[in-house]
# Entry
Amino acid sequence: MIKNISNLGDAALYCDFGIEVNRNINSEVIKYFKAIKEKNIEGINNLTPSYNKLIISFDLSVTNYSEIKDKIEKLNINEVPNNSNKKLEIPVCCDTSFSLDIERLEKKLNSSKQKILENFFNKEYFCYMTGFIAGMPFLGDLDQNMRAQRLETPRVKVPKGSVGLTEQFANIYTFESPGGWNIIGNTPLVVFDSTKEKEPNLINPGDTVIFKPITLDQYKNYNE
Amino acid sequence: MNKGYFEIIRAGINTTFQDLGRKNLYHIGIPFSGAMDSRNFLLANKIVGNKLDLPVIEFAYQGPLLMFNGHKINIVITGDVIFKIRKKNNEIEGNCYETYQIEQGDEIDILSTNKSVYGYLAISGELDLKFQWGSCSVNTKANIGSNEGKKLNNGQKIDISKINSNLEKKKINYFNSKIENIRVIKGTNFDYFSEEGKNNFFQKEFIVSKLSDRMGMRLEGPKIENIVNTNIKSEGLLKGVIQVPADGNPIIMLSDHGTIGGYPKIGVVASVDYDRLVQISPGSKIKFKEIELSDAETLFKLYEMETQNLISQI
# Structure
């Protein structure tokens, strides 16, 4: 349920679903996001679901805050079927050449590379949201003993395909970009395909992801 | 079909193709992009007789030097721009909002924007550009849009796919009004800041930093002190959102912004002031003035009517 709707500037609704970050609240956000998208409400030009908020942007030339707020409040959310969530396996290679921050994590988590990776692989992670850069998924939740802060000084260039950890989340850098997450490996999978007009994202909010370890040879041969 | 081309002799500082931008992609991490100053974008297309949504060439500070290869075509430059048209036997000091007929071998030399940032060059016709998700707009950070998502380079060619048949001269009298006071609606984390911080925000002057680009405008001035939390759970951003990171210096999100962010939002620039905000150049002063939602809505309607009036007179 939306707890409160307010305005974010003059061309967006700020829908607040709560302050915690958990799957229940996020599933509600995603349910609303999908329902509103499906309804194609005139004037709405963007939707941004996140952990516990949904921002609805609209074209101020054709509508306004109170009109859109009214439509959202009257929306029957249960009309829209919500069965489009996928389950995906993501191969990740944690060869030393890819696990750029494993030593940092070993220190911060007071653990070993082997234990960290054992804990990371073969578990279900839930996609809370995608964004920041195109297609980047925010996947959670990591176990309590896997949670570390961002790098003090972010990298200027994180390689494409890098898999990173921060706090309770894992993410994947869909293209080379600056970033501060703790990099543990790299996936050969194309997670964001800009040549696709439809659904360029492999992973979408609501999907479930399982990371599977692969060797450097498997990584190199993956796309052949 | 090829109707001629422009050769880019000098690309300029940040010259890109822009149109109205792309919608409904925030949820996968892709921002609107599009022309920064939407009124000047629309006027450029209208003056050369184009459909209003056609892609144009946007430049910042120093613009491109282009040579035309083809029969003849009209061009217009909008914004507040110093430029020259070089023909075989003479050189013309160009005026913005006035069409010029360009022939084989003529050069358009866009020297600089004048106490502003962005200008637009439109041709009476269509450039041969690739669309991506319904728009040609280039986002150089994500390499999205036409020209492989990159800014123009020296030596490059831009093909022209269509030339309008009507090459009648057009001219309007329009002056870009400059503003120092930017109207802002309080943000969702306004109460995260100390009384002094809030007062500084709405009363003191800030200076636009050199680190500003199409993604964001960074400001320097009195620090805005946060008394609650310098991070929030990451959530959606919009153009015009003013975030204040831990260092206390506000950043205004502009058209190529990252789609989510985790810094508290002190305010959002009213839509009516966006076109003029983006034109404030680094080193200039800026002040924020609080405005209520209903006033922001009314002022935007008026601004839009004014734009429509300008367009309908052309």
